[in-house]
Amino acid sequence: MPLPNYFKDRYKDWKDNVFPNKKNSYRFLEKEGQNPKAMIISCCDSRIDPNKIFKAEEGDFFIHRNIANLVPSFESKNISYETLAAIKYAVKELNINDLIILGHSSCGGIKHAYQLFSKEIDETESVLDKWINIIKPAYEILDNHLNKKDCIKSLEKLSIVNSISNIISFPEINDMILKNKLNIHGLWFEISSGNMMYYNQESKKFENIY
Ligand SMILES: [Zn+2]
Q1: Ligand 1 centre and the CA of 67: distance in Å?
Q2: Cα of 202 from ligand 1 centre, angstroms
């Protein structure tokens, strides 16, 4: 199967018209290596692009994407190590000082988790269902008085907080936080409005960034 023309055409346009203006920057990054400002863990969702939201240039952010922007806990078993490997590389090799978990509205992964845990759909042995299990502790503290739509929105945010707790559960990461070498941030982005909320770890609430 040949590469679809969409990719060829878009790439050619970039190489002919964008790359020439950025050539020096790319050469510098190749020669000197990367020195990103922060690590961002975001969802695979095609509507969320951290580089666009934060107006990034090449080399600005070390980005890891997975379904529902999750971080498993230190105690997790039978789970993919790729997210943990990415975090470890970022903090140990790249000396990242800021690690952002970027969640978002209408997240398919979070909705799937809600449907699974509320028994709207049956759990299977699929890798997706196993992955989504990371969200379970967040689901268990949901306010059940909320309607379904608000429950899912709340779960999107609680899951970010859960992932922050999971990151901190790694002793060597926690050690870096205590020594002020690493800051963990939780953000939630609303697609339709473009609004961003920040998790205040003191008040334990999500607040508008500005
Ligand atoms: Zn998502």
Answers
A1: 6
A2: 26
